[in-house]
Amino acid sequence: MIYDAVIVGGGVVGLSILRACLLAGHAAVLLERHPDLCDGASGRNSGVLCTGVDAPAGSLERALIRDSISRVREFCRKHNVPMRECGSLVCLWPWDGEDAEEKKAGDDAALEEAAASKERLRRVLEESHVAGDKDASFLDAEEVARVEPSLSSQCRGAVHIPGETVVDPWLFPLALAAHARELAEASIRTGREVVMERSSFDRERGVWNVVTRATNPGVNGDGDETTTITARCVINAAGIHSDLVQMSAASSVSGNGCTLPPPTFEARPRRGQYRIFAAPNDGRSNSQWPNVPRSIPVRPIQPVPSQFTKGIFVYSTLYDQIVVGPTSDDQSSRTDDALDGNVADQLTAHASRVLGPQFDHTKVVGEYVGIRPGTSKRDYQIHLHPPAHFITVGGIRSTGLTASLGIGRHVVQCLLATIVPPKRDDSSPDMQSPPTPLPDVNELVMQYHRRRDGKVAVGGHVYRVTHPLTRMGWDARTGLAAR
Length: 483
Hints:
- The chain is an alpha+beta fold.
- The chain has twelve helices and 25 strands.
- It has helices spanning 12-23, 60-79, 100-103, 108-131, 141-147, 171-183, 242-253, 341-355, 400-415, 429-432, 441-451, 468-476; strands spanning 2-3, 5-8, 28-32, 48-49, 83-84, 88-92, 137-140, 157-161, 165-167, 188-190, 192-194, 200-202, 207-214, 226-231, 234-236, 267-278, 301-303, 313-316, 321-325, 329-330, 364-375, 381-385, 390-394, 455-458, 461-464.
- The strands form six sheets. It has a six-stranded mixed sheet, sandwiched between helices. Strands 1, 11, 12, 13 and 14 form a five-stranded mixed sheet that branches. Strands 16, 18, 19, 20 and 21 form a five-stranded antiparallel sheet that branches.
């Protein structure tokens, strides 16, 4: 069989591309080297869908985020993916420089810092409007206390960005995988590693012969022998390894007259550590959100962002657990996700400042580290190489979950279409191929506890729950998992 596309990488971006390929009528297959889907960066994100306010204006990243956001709510409703359409608050705090005016009025540097913090908050509001969140608004300290009673009284004001949403970060990509398998049963192969240095591109036929091998021979019936998949296009969605995959592919075709340049970017792993706490519950609910305890923030609480990072969030999951993170630290290792005790203490201190004296820092539920595929560039690195029938989808940093639907559509409709024309129009794809909704969360939680192996079965396939936020919520049976 000759596939139209072979997708390398089984994270949320690769799964979205696969689903978009199948909806367009393409024969496509996805290869994931881990035994489970979403076992890399996609299994260690925040579960917060942003609106692109911190992506550079005019960037591909912002465009794909906006495209995705315009469709994500309908996607979640049709696939039964739980979400909280709550918006977020970008808050100004005394430690951002505001209290300098009160305590150090004679200090010119402190006054400058206070003014700079106010100016950054004003720019957040302006950028939100430019990015498409026309209803973003400024809230003074009294309004913040009214809508988020769980916060410390030290908050000096905030910008409310209504378009941001909290989802279950594992059920979202699971819905993509389940729909893809409905469209083509054998479209996903896990535990299969692509060996690009042994693969080849046939210029005359316009096809790749992609060599794969089992990463864990003997599991799921896989032997240690290699197999070859023939496809008209390779779509490289290998996350933190996307630059290495393209480099290997470029070397494999260098001798046959086909031009595939080495990547124009280098992956720069960015480490993000999170800490999760049980929520204090005094039996009172938030007046605007009756299913959410009054003692936890409904909306993600963000600091005023810098040019380098959005900063550390404090927010609650759909399972009523408090999350603080992520940090943002560059590191050389692409795999080192060991916890740092000092960072954990810093995260706890940050949550204590934001939530005030009612926050119980002793109720630690868990923690984890995610490694985001940053690069030296300020934009996504999505490139088509027509002569080699090769597409790289790289540099998808922390906004990959948010932008995944837009990335899938862009890669298939704008890039793959120049190599393999789509078989059908997907302007209303779910009307052509209506998905079977995921089971309700309570049903999945009961199955998860009944199996006791960390897995659930959906659509005839068994999936391991790879995301800590979903797993911790289901283990505790709190919030949405308790209903």
